[in-house]
Amino acid sequence: MPMDVPPNIHHVGEVTSTMDAARQMLTAANGAPFAVLAESQVRGRGTGERVWISPKGNMYFTLCIPEKSVTPEITPVLPLLTGLVCRAAIMSVIKGADVHVKWPNDIIYAGKKIGGSLVESEGESLIIGIGMNVELAPPVTDSGRASTTVNEVAATLGQPKVTPAQLAELVWKHFFQMISDTALTRKILVTRFDAAMDKSLSLHRRTPTGRDPEELRALRLNEWGHLIVSRPDGTEDTLMAEYLF
């Protein structure tokens, strides 16, 4: 797929979720890449079916691409690639912003969450949902990490506000630049994500009843993009699919 794919973003008002809206548009798209950007969602969702609070003012964005657009080597680590894309989009518009990622799919600034992503498939398409706090930081109700917004970061650095539409176009641009890079291997991608992780964060596994009290620390990623953490007793553990607060 060429690096400079013209943005094909459908702007909509309130939807159940942009991922639902994108699924409804798949047939008409006939295999062409497209995205949905909504003003708000009434049933937005995150990893593990968590509710994503979605008031007007933030970026609710779903990108749909043919599965063949991504090499089989990169597909298993697509959540990591998406995190790096979101980080690059913010840092390209807010100069000097020291944005990090948290495994496997969160965007972090100064220890606070800006957004996250969710990757699903439908037939021969990949559906990549991305939510980022642009103007509003919804309250944290499930013992999750405190949140901040893109525009709080911009204000801290004395820079102009960003709109959800501006950010969505930057995400589109950086996504296609990254997946079009023929030199990109899983090893390179994992190395980049590892370097961008905020390893100072206190991490906790999510349990059915809330937050596991055991504090974990990110050490590094293995070659498959799995997270190796340290436990309080000094032992190490490898996480492959867990959700972390």
Task: Walk me through this protein's architecture.
With 245 residues, the chain is an alpha+beta fold. It folds into two domains: 7-193, Bira Bifunctional Protein, Domain 2 (BirA Bifunctional Protein, domain 2), CATH 3.30.930; 200-237. It is built from five helices and twelve strands. The protein has helices at 18-29, 78-93, 150-156, 164-179, 186-196; strands spanning 9-15, 34-41, 59-66, 99-102, 106-109, 112-122, 125-132, 206-207, 210-211, 217-221, 227-230, 236-239. Strands 1-2-3-7-6-5-4 form a seven-stranded mixed beta sheet, sandwiched between helices. A three-stranded antiparallel beta sheet has the order 10-11-12. It has a two-stranded antiparallel ribbon with strand order 8-9. The longest helix is centred in the middle third of the chain and has 16 residues, at 78-93. The radius of gyration is 17 Å and the shape is globular. The termini are far apart. 36% of the residues are buried. The mean pLDDT is 91. Pfam families: BPL_LplA_LipB. Keywords: Ligase. This is Biotin/lipoate protein ligase, putative. GO terms for molecular function: biotin--[biotin carboxyl-carrier protein] ligase activity. Residues 1-183 form the BPL/LPL catalytic domain.
